[in-house]
Write a structure and sequence with these properties.
The complex is a heterodimer of chains A (about 260) and B (about 325).
Chain A: H1 2-21, H2 23-50, E1 53-54, E2 57-58, H3 59-81, H4 87-92, H5 96-100, H6 106-112, H7 117-136, H8 143-169, H9 171-174, H10 180-189, H11 200-206, H12 217-223, H13 229-254
Antiparallel strand pairs in A: 1-2
Helix pairs in contact in A: 2-3, 3-7, 3-8, 8-10, 8-12, 8-13
Chain B: E1 4-17, H1 22-28, E2 33-47, E3 52-56, H2 63-70, E4 78-83, H3 93-96, E5 99-103, H4 115-125, H5 130-144, H6 159-171, E6 177-181, H7 189-206, E7 209-213, H8 217-223, E8 226-231, E9 234-240, H9 241-248, E10 251-258, H10 264-268, E11 272-277, E12 280-286, H11 290-300, E13 303-309, H12 313-323
Parallel strand pairs in B: 3-7, 3-8, 5-6, 6-7
Antiparallel strand pairs in B: 1-2, 1-4, 8-9, 10-12, 10-13, 11-12
The chains are: A mainly alpha (about 260), B alpha/beta (about 325).
């Protein structure tokens, strides 16, 4: 464990060194991120001009859900978002070779090699916005609910990681799946809405095969006291099993790896 | 006891045939013809500790596939392999800490960062103690003469400097077995020579077992006492290099340019005339007479330029097949 901690520290240090070389790029991307955030909030404002609640959730709660989704997405981007989408190319171009010869988990290395530094800056900014929303809407949370919300938020990151990994692992069979990460992005973006707005079948999928409910809906439901104990337990067990399944699938797929001609 | 032992090792790749053209592309969405390529066919060999073995063959012969199986990158279709007593494709950390793979056409260094950052990363991956890391780094950078480039971004280094850094990255944990897959490919003659000299010294001092694949006969001649030749997935020769050279390379090729036309009859007196064009000729001569004949050509004929070429490894393999398929 200590070894992996040291390796991750080096990955982070190298990512900071890399980012420092492209500072201009970082600031431009920060600027566009602010515009993107503004568009998210504008959507909420437009919806709530015409209604006072969305599937039983008021404006402040929808803001919370949107921000939870943004924070989960940002954390995912920071930790594995710049890595896993490269997996199909890594597999088809034979770049996985080097990872497989090292005395460490190849999955750990390909998932975490690049720490997206600009996502850290954005994450801090988004935490401040979340604090402002909590203050603006005068939320008062139960501490136990806060604890479960954070726990479920982290479980949601594991679910998102596992979902992304499983779909990208298909590259061992399908080779060119360039669009898979666009599809993941489109699907997971639905996670910023309450699942009650979705059709029944989609709602079932959101808690199972296409687990979009885990990034924002489930943590915010816990935070606002909407979750039952068995619901929280289901989410935690599901996250664990989904992660385990994704790792098993990866290990199974590795047996199919044929590298590439040199 | 051999440090590397391979028995009846085979590897078959699956691939698909897709004829060219738009409609064929559409058709291939629904139906593709599955084909199989046998890259390695039931090969056997063993290597003792400290040996430096040349693994030769033309493109697609199965060299890299064998190295990839031995380093645990891919699974074989059948057969067994043991490296340092481990089955490579089980990818046990204890095994991975004792070998290294350097591929001339792939790099493990971080492209946008100085090589030193990759060395520090490898130190943690291989859990090399600080003192040993410093000592090995000092030793390797001294031998390869790259102390002054460790803080330069990898992308700004020349190909030769990059390969030297790749070697350092691969050797920091002092592996007992080293797989070198075309380490001199694309390098200029000076860099090729530097890398070659380094490998020779390293093998001599560290007694590391090395398998080297290369298309350059100079690499093999300079480094390997023993060679294994593979073609179409079969081992066609496994033995001393000298025996192979004596048996199959008995000639060199002289490529001569003249200042005026020289007739074929005159040229044929010097050796076997392989090609002739206006003011240019390619002559095959006995290996031990090559220098003398070159001198004679220079003194007796109006020579503008002359090149003495070694016979390539591909030609050696062709010759082996012209004689017998297995020795």
């Amino acid at each position: 464990m200590n070894k992996y901690f040291k390796i991750y520290k080096i990955f982070m240090a190298n990512s900071f060194s890399y980012e420092a070389q492209y500072r201009g790029d970082t600031w431009i991307k920060m600027f566009f991120n602010i515009i993107w955030l503004a568009s998210m909030f504008l959507t909420v404002e437009v919806v709530f001009r015409h209604t006072s609640a969305l599937a039983g959730w008021d404006k402040g709660e929808i803001y919370l859900m949107t921000l939870f989704w943004i924070l989960a997405d940002e954390l995912a981007m920071m930790i594995f978002g710049a890595n896993l989408p490269q997996l199909p190319d890594t597999i088809t171009d034979g770049k996985l070779d080097i990872y497989l010869t090292k005395p460490m988990s190849a999955l750990f290395a390909i998932s975490t090699k690049i720490f997206l530094v600009r996502s850290l800056y954005r994450f801090i900014m988004e935490i401040i916005i979340l604090a402002a929303v909590i203050w603006k809407f005068d939320f008062a949370f139960n501490l136990l609910y806060v604890f479960f919300s954070i726990l479920l938020g982290l479980a949601g990151i594991f679910v998102l990681y596992s979902f992304t990994l499983m779909l990208n692992t298909l590259a061992f069979w399908l080779h060119r799946i360039d669009n898979v990460n666009v599809a993941i992005s489109v699907l997971t973006s639905l996670g910023k809405y309450p699942v009650e707005v979705l059709p029944r079948t989609m709602r079932i999928l959101a808690f199972t095969a296409i687990p979009i409910a885990f990034t924002a809906y489930i943590p915010v439901a816990a935070l606002t006291g909407r979750s039952s104990w068995h619901g929280i337990l289901y989410a935690l067990v599901f996250a664990g099993l989904f992660f385990w399944g994704a790792v098993k699938f990866w290990n199974f797929a590795l047996k199919r790896y044929s590298s590439a001609s040199s | 006891m051999p440090i590397i032992q391979i028995e009846n090792l085979s590897k078959t790749y699956e691939y698909y045939r897709k004829p060219a053209g738009f409609w064929n592309s559409v058709k291939s969405l629904f139906h593709r013809e599955k084909l199989f390529a046998e890259a390695v066919k039931s090969i056997n060999f063993s290597i003792e500790e400290g040996e430096l073995v040349g693994f030769l063959g033309p493109n697609g012969a199965g060299k890299t596939t064998t190295l990839k199986i031995l380093s645990g990158i891919i699974y074989p279709t059948s057969g067994s392999a043991k490296v340092l007593g481990y089955t490579p494709w089980k990818r046990q950390a204890r095994f991975q800490k004792q070998f290294a793979l350097v591929m001339g056409q792939k790099n493990q260094l971080w492209w946008d960062l100085p090589a030193m950052e990759s060395f520090i990363l490898n130190k943690e991956i291989y859990e090399v103690p600080e003192a040993m890391f410093k000592e090995t780094l000092e030793e390797l950078t001294e031998l390869l003469d790259i102390k002054n480039i460790l803080d330069v971004q990898v992308r700004k280094l020349s190909l030769g400097q990059r390969m030297k850094c790749e070697l350092v990255a691969a050797l920091l944990h002092s592996p007992r077995v080293l797989f070198l897959d075309e380490p001199t490919i694309g390098l200029d003659v000076v860099s090729q020579n530097n890398v070659r000299e380094f490998i020779k010294k390293y093998n001599r001092f560290k007694k590391t077992t090395i398998i080297l694949t290369s298309h350059y006969m100079e690499d093999v001649e300079a480094l390997c006492e023993r060679v294994i030749i593979i073609n179409h997935g079969l081992i066609v020769y496994d033995g001393k290099l000298q025996k192979l050279l004596d048996q199959y390379i008995d000639h060199k090729i002289l490529e001569v340019t003249f200042t005026e036309n020289v007739d074929a009859k005159t040229l044929a007196r010097f050796g076997k005339l392989k090609e002739r064009a206006a003011k240019r000729a390619v002559i095959e001569v006995r290996k031990d007479k090559a220098k003398d004949i070159a001198v004679q050509l220079l003194t007796k004929l109006p020579v503008d330029d002359i090149l003495i070429n070694e016979v390539g490894v591909d030609e050696v393999i062709r010759k082996i097949f012209a004689g017998t398929a297995r020795l």
